[in-house]
Design brief:
The protein has a 3-stranded parallel β-sheet with strand order 1-2-3, with helices on one face. It has helices at 23-33, 49-58, 72-80; strands spanning 40-44, 62-66, 86-87. It starts with 22 loop residues before the first helix and ends in a 10-residue tail after the last strand. The chain has 3 helices and 3 strands. By secondary structure, it is an alpha/beta fold.
């Protein structure tokens, strides 16, 4: 594999969900990115499971999910249930957190 055959695009944008947050625009953004065949979408879960499931349905590639503060069993269930392809584990994987 040559370096020119690898495509990588990183877009980082953090959304603050408050009274000014436009959910429709956010979902439209994910829908627009999906056909670009990007490697993954990384979601920091904020507690809205309905939104999470909507994004999973829209995103055709790898979905990385960060449910900060939840136990490893909950995170593993997300993978088992198909909600996420990869979950973050952070300090749970460190020998000395």
């Amino acid at each position: 594999m040559s370096a020119d055959s690898i495509q990588f695009l990183e877009i980082e944008h953090k959304f603050v969900v408050d009274s000014t947050f436009n959910l429709d625009s956010f979902v439209a953004g994910v829908r627009a990115l999906a056909p670009l065949d990007l490697a993954y979408l990384h979601i920091a879960h904020g507690g809205d499971d309905e939104l999470l499931h909507t994004l999973r349905k829209l995103w055709p590639n790898t979905l990385v999910l960060n449910r900060a503060g939840t136990d490893i069993d909950t995170r593993a269930k997300d993978v088992e249930d198909g909600v996420a392809d990869v979950v973050t584990v952070g300090t749970m994987a460190l020998a000395n957190p």
